[in-house]
Amino acid sequence: MRAAVAVSQDYDHPLDGLQVQEMPDPEPGPGSVKVHVRAASLNMHDVWTLRGVGHPAEKLPRILGCDVAGVTDDGREVVVASVIGDPSAGGGDETLDPRRTLVSENIDGALAEQIVVPERNLIDKPAALSFEEAACLPTAWGTAFRMLFTRAGVRPGDRVLVQGASGGVNSAAITLAVAAGARVYATARTPEKQEYARSLGAIPFASGGRLPERVEVVVDNVGAATWAHSLRCLKPGGLVVTCGATTGGAPDPELNRVFYQQLRVIGSTGATRGEVESLLRFMADRDIHPHIDRVIGLDEVKDGFAAMIAGEFLGKIVVTP
Ligand SMILES: NC(=O)c1ccc[n+]([C@@H]2O[C@H](COP(=O)([O-])OP(=O)(O)OC[C@H]3O[C@@H](n4cnc5c(N)ncnc54)[C@H](OP(=O)(O)O)[C@@H]3O)[C@@H](O)[C@H]2O)c1
Question: Domain named Enoyl reductase (ER): which ranges (predicted)?
Answer without folding.
Answer: 13-319
